Amino acid sequence: MEPPATGPVECEVLTLPDDVHSEEIQIVDEIPAGEGGTLVDGDYELVEHVRYLSEPNEDRPTLMRAALRLRNRARVVDYRVDERDPEERENPKGFTAHVVIDGNDIQLEMICPAMESGSIGYTATKDRLSLFEGNEEMRFARR
Question: d(Cα 87, Cα 21) in Å, to the nearest integer?
Fold first, then answer.
């Protein structure tokens, strides 16, 4: 396991791209496991949001836009998401966290806001990053 970044880290609030929402893709299948990889510093934008289901779902898919920034040699992540549920309510949220790689998982040690730390699966390539949590996969492309 890599140690987290050291020293003070400032919290950053990312700006989301205007009117770029990814409609949820629903797939009847099991969520794949993360394959790990090398995290690369940079700004990433959500390109696909996939929900894996055990049976087809008739609910209207959620619209989402999200961005993340990896910095400090990919040891810090800033994340922001704006999710629209079917009733068109917006639910913006975000965080800054230390990143610790543990095999094919990323341990997120929250810096701000104060919230519970957690772990997510990931697959990283040079310009792509997929994050896996629960039954959801968020696919990001580096800008």
Answer: 15
Cα torsion at 59, 16, 31, 141 (round to 10°)?
A: 130
For the cut 70, the answer to whether the pLDDT of residue 127 exceeds it is yes
69 bridge partner residues: 43, 78
In the DSSP assignment, the letter for residue 36 is: B
Q: Break the chain into its structural domains and give their ranges.
A: 22-142
pTM summary value = 0.85
User: Does residue 62 register a pLDDT over 60?
Assistant: yes
Average pLDDT, the chain: 86
Q: Give the mean pLDDT of 10-17.
A: 80
Instruction: Look at residues 136, 143, 118 and name the one whose alpha carbon lies nearest to residue 67.
Output: 143
Calculate mean pLDDT across residues 121-138: 96
Domain over 22-142 is classified CATH 2.40.128.280: yes
Alpha carbons 85 and 23: distance in angstroms, whole number: 11
Beta carbons of 97 and 11 less than 8 angstroms apart: no
Backbone angles phi, psi at 2, to 5 degrees: -75, 145
Half-sphere exposure of 50 (CA within 13 A, CB side): 16
